[in-house]
Give the backbone structure.
Amino acid sequence: GNEETGSAETEGEDQKEATEETAEIEPVKIVLNWFAQAGHGGIYTADVEGYYEENGLDVTIEPGGPQVSSVQMVASGSAEFGLVHGDQLLVAKNQGIDLVALAAIYQNSPQAMMTHKGHEIEDFGDINGRTVFIQSGIAYWEYFKGQYDLSNVNEIAFTGDHTNFMNDEESVNQVYVTGEPYFMEQQGIETETKLISDSGYNPYQYVLYVTKDYLEENEETVKKFVSAFVEGWNHFKESPDTTLDEIHEVNPDMTMEANEYGMEVGKDFIFVGDAEDKGFGYMSEERWATLIDQLTEAGVLEVEIEASDIFTNDYLTES
Amino acid sequence: MKEAVAFKQVDKIFNNETIALSDFDLTVHEGEFVCFLGPSGCGKSTALRMVAGLGEPTNGEVEVFGHSPKELIQDTNDIAFVFQDANLLPWKTVLDNVLLPLRLRGGSKREQKKEAVRVLKMVGLADYLKAYPRQLSGGMKMRVSIARALAAKPKLLLMDEPFAALDEITRQTLQQELLDIWQKEKMTILFVTHNVFEAVLLSTRIAVMSARPGRLSSVIDIDIPFPRPASIRTNPKFNEYVDLASEKLEGRQEREEAK
Amino acid sequence: MKEAVAFKQVDKIFNNETIALSDFDLTVHEGEFVCFLGPSGCGKSTALRMVAGLGEPTNGEVEVFGHSPKELIQDTNDIAFVFQDANLLPWKTVLDNVLLPLRLRGGSKREQKKEAVRVLKMVGLADYLKAYPRQLSGGMKMRVSIARALAAKPKLLLMDEPFAALDEITRQTLQQELLDIWQKEKMTILFVTHNVFEAVLLSTRIAVMSARPGRLSSVIDIDIPFPRPASIRTNPKFNEYVDLASEKLEGRQEREEAK
Amino acid sequence: MAMSTTELTSKVVKKKINVKQNRFWDTFRAVYLGPVIAFILFIAAWQLVPAILGLQPYIFPKPSDVINAAVTDWSLLWPAIQITVGESVLGFIVRGVIGILASVLLASSKVLERSIYPYAILLQTIPVVAVAPIVVIWFGAGFNSIIVISFLIGFFPVISNTLLGLNSVDKNLDDLFTLYNASKWQRMWRLRIPSALPYIMAGLKISCTLSIVGAIVGEYIAGIGGGKGGIGYSITVAAVQVKTPYLFACGIAAAVLGISFYLLVNLFSHLLLRSWHESAMKVEK
Amino acid sequence: MAMSTTELTSKVVKKKINVKQNRFWDTFRAVYLGPVIAFILFIAAWQLVPAILGLQPYIFPKPSDVINAAVTDWSLLWPAIQITVGESVLGFIVRGVIGILASVLLASSKVLERSIYPYAILLQTIPVVAVAPIVVIWFGAGFNSIIVISFLIGFFPVISNTLLGLNSVDKNLDDLFTLYNASKWQRMWRLRIPSALPYIMAGLKISCTLSIVGAIVGEYIAGIGGGKGGIGYSITVAAVQVKTPYLFACGIAAAVLGISFYLLVNLFSHLLLRSWHESAMKVEK
Ligand SMILES: Nc1ncnc2c1ncn2[C@@H]1O[C@H](COP(=O)(O)OP(=O)(O)OP(=O)(O)O)[C@@H](O)[C@H]1O
Ligand SMILES: Nc1ncnc2c1ncn2[C@@H]1O[C@H](COP(=O)(O)OP(=O)(O)OP(=O)(O)O)[C@@H](O)[C@H]1O
Ligand SMILES: [Mg+2]
Ligand SMILES: [Mg+2]
């Protein structure tokens, strides 16, 4: 439908009627939080299966990258929709960027701490005295600092490379259980992981969001998008194969096996909890409130944020 | 006759306190051929550079055709300068070096090329049009520089020891060519040389300078009619002038040395 | 007497096919003072450069004190060269430029400095020890270059038109100084000049060259005893030699032109 | 005389023929032998060091591991290389053209130079990561932003060297142009730019090695948008997947591209300068 | 004659005094007016553009936002600046010294140059992210690795320019040294290095602007964590926390450091060259 839209819009006055008709196909863009991967499954499913089109949308899916800030792109209007982690959404809100979460992909956070086998941590307090590769400024680490004694941690910025982790048996590395453990295994390195959520810090991950302004002005579009989005995820749950192929096409360096692994493991974080009984994407005010409390305690949030302000389930109900 | 170049009580003191010229006062009329004679370092090049607008007097004034040289060279390009060193563009061939002033002026490219080839032939470099400066001998480089100046057909020609690097034969040929051109084109020429014979042969007047600080010590009018073929060297009047000029030059210096 | 420099049927052809020297054959004995006379571009500089090991003959051989020049300059630094252009290091003062060959050789710094100052005084630049080359006139630069060569007290001195940029007085002083040094130090000198008087005054032999390709056209022994004061110019024998040299020089050229 | 000339030339020609037979081996010895030995030593050292230190391939791969990885994943590497080549060539051209034009503009007036040059330094010294969000917002994720970032990373060597070159004109030649009343642009075009060429080429040589790095950093920072990823993308993904040998293969590919690019620019520079500049011409003695 | 000399000099002195009164204003006009105006325009434009485009501070902060952020978080910014300055100065020195020494070594033999120079290009073109892990393993996370990475990022301009300079010696001066049988090192020290100085200084100028960037990238890649970091660390944190004005403050701080560093090196270069090189000397006419 893309080409038709283009040509129709450039036609003259007398074709106005036709233009109005096709104008119902609305172009929007979604920025992902990383290169395409299994965790973005439903988004691609909706595209592959034509759900967006059925809903009158022409969606461009733009993969992220190491330094691509989806928040800023959405906030500046260069994209309408974006994906971020729940805690990042709050951090943005703290800076006065009014964003609203529309749906959560991961009900439970797949973030974890990875250790070499035989050097497991029972409790996050065990990290003390060891070397940790962790992204500078990441929110849960600030929370951990308040919860556990981490005064003797040798904290090294994690930049996406695991060589130094592999080289040091005692070290600890931030990971997603949907990815790294698999890659380690491929290299013949045995690892153990401990989920961050075990500490009680469990934000929604891969949250679909828009700006508040956009939401207010384009409720229809948002509704259409979310409904295609949810539909995509529901379909992805049942038959992921074509989508995974598409994802491999878009992100060819990521192996098919890695995608399948990601999906297998990811399922247990996505389609669980509230998603099971209340439908895909559901978020509870209580969990948002907990997160806000935790981050306020950690000193990450300086302004008061109402949990009800930050998200809405309103557009999920459709499906 | 109109004034072509006028030095009006010019002093030139460089920043390192070297006094290159002091109280230099000289007027050259249009159509004159004035030779500068003087010991090494007495300020001859400095004086010529000021005429070309490439240096400013510390005190006094230099006027060229009634204007300040800077003004003048901004309006026209009627001045050509054969520098003491050949000063060629190393990335251009001999021909292109000679073409440079013509090209800067604009006009028919074919005409310019014809003219450039003609002067290069005159200075004996017809076979080296495509050579680069680094492939030439010292004297050949100087000849390119002379060709470049002549090709521009200037109204005022400044030449700083143009023939010093040339053998006697080539020098004599070029001296005659220069006199020819000077008479034909009615240009004004200021010419620095260390060769007293050359000075007498070429000039209508000789400005003898003394050193430290550079001063004009005397001016000799050369009253020998043109044309002056090379054979004039045997003329007793010629030799009288040579002796006079040598005397002025030496006398001045000897007096200095005695001090 | 031992051979100092020997050209053995030397040809020199540059890559662009210019034949700079052809069948050049000349032997210079130790203690000789040989002047090269020849038209511009006839290969004088090229010949001197080969003696200094700065160029290689295309055919034939050049020997200096019985060795190939390249070998020789790798063993000693007994050769000094006054290049056709002054060739000074722009970032060094006059004094440091003259000190350069001495410093390269090593030895007492104080002695060297004394020697450098002495030669600079001799060439009339005592007041410019601290000046940079760009602050000097053309003749002054050349004099620094001469001082640099003399300060090194070489066994073989190559001079390429060293006095061309100098006025008559300075030139005469330096000619006498050079003759003095030559006799005292018993050095061998190859000297390029365009000035026939100079050639006769200075040399024990004159090598006259012709151009295109550069050839040795004749060699003239100058049989005037040393010392030769400046006044010798009035000597009829002197003038005979001058005439002879001029004739050889011109004759050769004219014949060529007639062709 | 004409005959003797021919004679002479023929003498030389004979000499040349005798020489020719050894020519090939001689050039090889003089020009290629050193690099070949160095290369062998380099590869040998690289192969041995991990073995001696007992480093695993996933920590420090040996050349054999790297080649293996490159061959295995050639179908991934090849398109990435093509994309990166495209980005870097375009980046280099943009940089070269804008850099030289800007320098010419700045050099045309001291006031301009003094006023604007500091902002060129600013663009160079401000960390790209700090301005990346703005670049991405204005130019969109992907190709355009990559070019802009690559431009930011490598344009300063061009502008800095060019400007220096334009200001290093021989004073005497400058006088000559003053005398001939050359216009500003004639002086620029016929004097300053030719004089500056050695400097400009030096700047371009530095800049071209930064091209590949620029494209890679660009992809890293601006993402790949909707397009296909180049080597920067491959490196990121390889790091996540702990495919160290493949990561090295990407690195080596980048380096080989960089070196080829350098040699190309070097060749071009040589052709431009060989007729007159000391750095390029074969001095004939 | 002595008297007339004094006379003359005093004439000049008088003239000079008359001039002196306007001197201050003249230099100001000639040297500083342009930059000051440019600076005002720059700041004004920067203040206005976001306002006109309606950009929020978290997307494109205005100068006032940036200053605000810098003042508010000065206690974080200041130590970061100090750390980065230390790293970049050390990085610059290491790079300068090694770069120049390596060039001198390479320039001392054509074979060496041909054999080893390609690896210098390789070091420049291989993406730092690819070798960073190895660097960290060998030099440990933190300071040492940062210096090494900063070295890798900025040494090529030094080596490339220096080498070019060392190979651009005037042929006639070179002949002079051959004639005087100068040893290799005498030639290097007394001829090639002085001739190359303008090129070396140009390389150092480029390199010094890369110092700050090098330190920042180094911090980013070599994994300074836990708040001990310099501007690079601050930038990462600011980016994660979407503190765009503070991020800009860091960027501007880096740029100001870079410019100051540049001016310092420039001054040094000027002092070294002014007595003889066209680019630095005030031509007297
Ligand atoms: N740029 C400069 N800076 C300082 N002093 C200078 C400069 N140019 C020339 N001088 C000095 O001015 C004096 C005159 O120099 P000038 O070049 O005019 O001499 P000249 O008469 O042409 O000598 P020559 O016959 O040797 O060429 C000399 O003492 C010289 O040292
Ligand atoms: N590097 C070079 N490449 C090509 N040709 C050259 C080179 N050097 C000199 N020549 C040519 O060799 C010939 C002789 O040059 P050389 O410099 O020896 O002349 P010369 O006798 O010193 O002349 P002059 O009196 O003008 O200095 C000239 O025709 C010149 O063009
Ligand atoms: Mg002069
Ligand atoms: Mg010569």
Notes: The CA atoms of residues 1 and 58 of chain A lie 8 Å apart.
